[in-house]
Design goal:
Two copies of one chain form a homodimer. Chain A is α/β, with parallel strands linked by helices. The first copy, chain A, folds into two domains: about 5-265, 4-Layer Sandwich (Nitrilase/N-carbamoyl-D-aminoacid amidohydrolase); about 285-465, 3-Layer(aba) Sandwich (Rossmann fold). Chain A is built from 18 helices and 19 strands. Chain A has helices at about 15-30, 55-70, 165-170, 190-205, 250-255, 270-285, 300-315, 330-345, 355-365, 375-395, 405-410, 430-440, 450-455, 465-470, 475-485, 490-495, 500-515, 515-520, and strands at about 5-10, 35-40, 80-85, 95-105, 105-110, 135-140, 140-150, 175-180, 210, 215-220, 220-225, 230, 235-240, 245-250, 290-295, 320, 345-350, 400, 425. In chain A, the strands form four sheets. A six-stranded mixed β-sheet of chain A has the order 5-4-3-2-1-14. Chain A is elongated.
């Protein structure tokens, strides 16, 4: 009777001491539980993605030291853990992305990853040579196929990215079960995809799969956990919880004969909510910060951002500034005060009008009688940004950015103004989903004043301004943006779906010419399959659809 | 007698119309010259690097249309041009990075690239499947090996990145000569490396190489041209000029029997100077802008940036603001006025003191009696940034950033303040090289007032502040930074070279904890082998050497 433990942990990139201590703690726990094998995630020891830290041999040596400590802790248990290993062959990349199988103080096997994701946020071929051999591990009479993340993903795709299939390589050797160490990031449709892939693999190979994922955020990339044990009869034996650390121990015999199939219900808005809360929490925790500051405008974006921050850091660690101008409506202040009181957070009102006039006066010799234009609009947004940064610098609060994905896409925001901040909380959430998040937050009690949700959106940078003056309705805008950004459809494909040609071309052009703005904005917590930032790499001086 | 023309051109990413027209123009020219073959660069038709535009099938269709137009222009001449092609096999990446050989309105051969650089700024394996076959083209009795950029680079390296060598594959088929279509970006030591590689190839294969490169900047990536024709006796038959478009036609017989070896002298500072001028020029030209604005502080960084801008855009298109505070020294203004007059550029003086006090007053209820600290220092830098942006928004000038690489490395700059701007001109130039650039600019006549070069550097954000209060001397700082950033040495390796342990650890920590700042800064013109930005990908929440 074999017992297999899965540790779904929140690692911290480059924090070898912290990660090792967490791993050793769970090895001890698994020994107490009588586990035969305990499994950790892909590149668990160094955290994922380590990016160009991998190019430092000092970094690799630190990782090797950690493996040595784990080896010494393996008396009486087998440990499966991910770490980079050095490629001994001169030709090819210097490293492999490997899974160690360690038991009784011996490294019994090191299996390299074969399928190296090099798309979206992934750069694995930048660092790693793909595996060229596939050997099962024999342990306590069982034959085990060790796989790393993507290695189980080359199945059932219409357009496979890879020319080989690691599990086909193993299949001829008749494994008893498959272990998969993953670092599979969240997007609101990805948990379903994972379960589909696991099911397709079990259907094909008829053996159980123990799939262990990371949990926790590394800047913008959020790992959602949701580790899974699949029975060979293609049912979900267990789906571990999402967005929290967890550890569970499974009896292989029970998994083999089980017939239960319990899949957790998935809800897009709930998942996004939980992902964003975890994303904010880990950004602060991993950087050693505790307090944030947000500019509360009276609009829905800053309101939703503030609720998330309050849930992530606690209301005592959230401070907001209300910064009215001559163009601000009375209700913007009232609504913001009400929201602050509902949340129990500190708020201050700092007027920007005098500072604005001071700038106008100093610039008067240069501007003369030229009419009010975007220069004056942006001045207001930038004064607000500066005030937030000043409080940040004085008291150590980190500014949270409140831009949403729709406005980031079309450049409806002021660089160094409302686009400032260390982290963009809802920068990968379309405006229509920001509304859905607000409704979700209010489902049990009114946290966000109803008026914030129902009033027409406005930047309030000139009299009676409304977003709809210069942008189409968000439900149309967001659909076109999603087809272009997530769907990578061209103008003709989008127009063919019935959208107005002139509008489509205008929006696609806006997205492309605003690449320079997005280049300089904070990392945005990634919740979709295609977020701005490291996963979407676009030229700035390009002239395409622009 | 075969004549081969090389067109070293400045392409524009995604500008199919512009690139095609340039290519067609040079085909016509080559026909007049009686050339048998005319060669263009790697991915010339779409520009390099096209990045994620390649994921849009609309983009690929536009490229295919361009190839069709080139095919129709091939009566009486052979055209060799780079473009993406669709991989017809279901497995693997969707595209190849290919060289077309087109003649007499027929596509005679399409050779795919085998070695796909996926390091530093390169992401080719993100998009392309590597070639798996290598066939010579037969044309007018000659056997030609077609190669794309990196394909000739797997030779003579101690630690080759790739497991195959395309030229070895061709060698058995006895080619008469090698054509190489490149998009090989500038760094101040790269032209020498290219010539070394070309020599190593000719020494091994004993046939001439016609190597044609791109010229021109695509945002931060600068192509320097310097196309080369190598004779089979391992001499440089011709090295085309650097940093300008050029077109030349060669007689194969003469190349075969020639014995001349003329290598252009290389000078690091001259090359950096020319690269930066071209970088600024193309950023503006390709985005359709003409005018820039710069904050002139009286320091050497903004002085050097302004000279480069003036040479790139013409003095009539450069405007500067002098923005003294209560901490500014008298000479800062005088030196800046003198520089402006030397260059013949428009300057205005806008004082920041009143705006600063206005902020202080509004923040007084929050700040109370707390002592002057980084909040007040950054306020000043940010007021200056805002003034530049206001003029930018009012008149259409693009703000040029003046940060150097040393300060970007250690975070000695204010986010949204002196770190603002659309393009960082000297952000990949260490401070010690900024001084060398200033001396170089002054070699024929004093453009930059001597006092700007000789006075001790200071941010002037508090009384009597000097850079040396918080940073080591730049000659030590820059050496440590270069070992860490370009050299990718760890702390132990650097300390082993004799640098102070405490200092090394402090500097490496500063570099790592300031990743969040660099994430939000403008693209910096790349002149070194390891610039901040797209070629150096670091985690923000990492905890390594920090």
């Amino acid at each position: 009777m074999m017992k297999i433990a899965l540790a779904q942990l929140n690692y911290h990139i480059g924090n070898f001491e912290g990660n090792l201590s967490k791993i050793l703690g769970h090895i001890a726990k698994a020994k107490i539980d009588g586990a035969d094998i305990v499994c950790f995630g892909e590149l668990a020891l160094c955290g994922y993605p380590p990016r160009d830290f991998l190019e430092f041999s000092d970094f690799i040596r630190q990782s090797e030291k950690g493996i040595e400590a784990i080896r010494k802790a393996s008396k009486g248990i087998a440990i499966v853990v991910g770490a980079p290993t050095v490629n001994p062959v001169v030709e090819g990349k210097d490293l492999y992305n490997s899974a160690y199988f360690i038991a009784e103080e011996k490294i019994l096997h090191v299996q390299h990853k074969a399928l190296l994701p090099t798309y979206d946020i992934f750069d694995e071929y930048r660092y790693f040579e793909p595996a060229n051999s596939f050997e099962l591990v024999e342990y306590k009479g069982k034959k085990i196929a060790l796989t790393v993340c993507e290695d189980i993903w080359n199945i059932g795709n219409e357009n496979p990215l890879y020319t080989i299939c690691p599990l086909d390589e193993y299949a001829g050797q008749n494994p008893d079960f498959i272990l998969n160490l993953s670092a599979s990031p969240f997007s609101y449709n990805h948990a379903e995809e994972r379960i589909e892939v696991l099911k397709a693999n079990v259907a094909r190979y008829k053996v159980p799969i123990f799939y262990v994922n990371h949990v926790g955020a590394q800047t913008e990339v959020i790992f959602d956990g949701g580790s899974v044990v699949m029975s060979p009869n293609n049912t979900i034996y267990e789906e571990m919880p999402y967005f929290v650390e967890d550890y569970r121990c499974y009896n292989l015999d029970q998994v083999l004969k089980a017939n239960k199939n319990i899949e957790q219900p998935k809800d897009k808005i709930l998942e996004i909510h939980d992902a964003l809360v975890l994303g904010v929490k880990d950004y602060f925790g991993k950087l050693g910060f505790s307090k944030c500051i947000i500019g509360l405008s009276g609009g829905i974006d800053s309101a939703v951002t503030t609720v998330i921050a309050s849930r992530a850091l606690g209301p005592q660690n959230v401070r907001v500034l209300l910064m009215p101008s001559q163009f601000s409506s009375e209700h913007s202040i009232n609504d913001s005060v009400e929201l602050s009181k509902n949340l129990g957070i500190q708020y201050d009102i700092v007027k920007i009008e005098d500072i604005y006039h001071c700038y106008k006066q100093e610039l008067n010799p240069l501007f003369g009688d030229l009419p009010f234009n975007i220069a004056e609009e942006n001045l207001q947004a930038r004064i607000r940004g500066m005030l937030l940064m000043a409080v940040s610098n004085k008291f150590g609060h980190i500014v949270l950015n409140t831009s949403n994905k729709s406005e980031a896409a079309v450049g409806y925001g002021t660089l160094y103004g409302d686009m400032c901040g260390g982290l963009s909380v809802i920068g990968d959430v379309y405006k229509t989903d920001v509304y859905a998040l607000a409704r979700f937050m209010n489902k049990d009690m009114e946290v966000i004043p109803e008026h914030i949700i129902t009033k027409p959106p406005s930047a309030e940078l000139r009299p009676n301004q409304k977003d709809s003056d210069s942008l189409p309705d968000y439900d149309i805008l967001d659909k076109i943006l999603e087809l272009y950004i997530e769907g990578r459809q061209g103008p003709n494909e989008i127009i063919a779906r019935g959208y107005d040609e002139k509008l489509v071309k205008r929006i696609l052009r806006l997205v492309n010419i605003n690449e320079f703005k997005r280049y300089q904005t904070a990392p945005a917590l990634r919740v979709s399959s295609k977020a701005f930032g490291m996963g979407r790499r676009m030229p700035i001086v390009g002239k395409y659809l622009s």
